[in-house]
Automatic annotation (TrEMBL):
Highest taxon of the lineage: Bacteria
Residue ranges crossing the lipid bilayer per the database entry: 26-50
Keyword Transmembrane helix found: yes
Keywords attached to this entry: Membrane, Transmembrane, Transmembrane helix
Name this protein carries in UniProt: Cytochrome c oxidase subunit IIa family protein
Length: 52
């Protein structure tokens, strides 16, 4: 007898659109977070240099 999978037990199939969306999300996150860290470091460096 062949077992039937319930709706919750079926394997999840990701489409290429989902993978592209995840890659875009990763890129955006790294870009904005990394850019913010670099920008903030630059601001602190400029303030430190202007102190003298």
């Amino acid at each position: 007898m062949k077992e039937r999978l319930r709706e919750e037990e079926k394997p999840v199939e990701r489409s290429t659109e989902d993978e592209m969306s995840l890659k875009g999300t990763l890129f955006s996150t790294l870009f904005f977070v990394g850019g913010s860290i670099v920008l903030w470091t630059g601001v602190l460096l400029v303030l430190f240099i202007m102190r003298f």
